[in-house]
Amino acid sequence: MLQVCPNGTRAAGVPVTPDELATAVRAAVDVGAQDVHLHPRDDTGADTLDPGHVAAALSAVREAAPGVPVGVTTGAWTAADAAERAALIRSWTVLPDHASVNFHEDGAERVAETLLDRGVAVEAGIFSGTEAAARFLRWPRAREVLRVLAEVTDTDPESATDAAKDLLHALGTGHGRPVLLHGEDGGAWPVLRLAVRFNLDTRIGLEDVLTLPDGTAAVDNTALVQTAKTLMTG
Description:
The protein is of the alpha/beta class. The chain is built from eight helices and eight strands.
């Protein structure tokens, strides 16, 4: 499975408004994206869990790409306190298909449980270089998540794949859930190739990387997805 991550927390050069996200996702799906992870933004351009902004982003993307699963972030930068994040999730009027929860963040279990209790699938974000893997594996509801997001934060193309292998080893297979492996910036393409080699789900988009494998700037998310799809099927 190839997921597109069209914006992330980047401040410029990425789709921000619901209409921009809808256009970007539709184009990415047309060239092979099968799932979406996006960051709804407020009127200032900041990531948000506000129910109105979440609903607007989800509704626009679903209208543009019906039937494609759409997820959102619940990162701690959207609201520093886990109780506040949980309250915002409970206030959502339009629910995403899934939402990512970063297990190195304070209150991750509370946020994940709130999502599950609302019927929203959880992507368990496990960052390399943190204690997230051990913490996730200790969580009693680990087997209820949709998938594990194995997120390699090492951006050095020479060492990112080793970091990815270490992360996969720390996670093991006992959790029984599918793994989506991805990297970022300089590590994005080496880690994507490793995911393809290991037959794992992966993702690509302007959240993760701004360049193509040859180092040239990516025009948009579509170019990234098209390139990733070629690597996956070639």
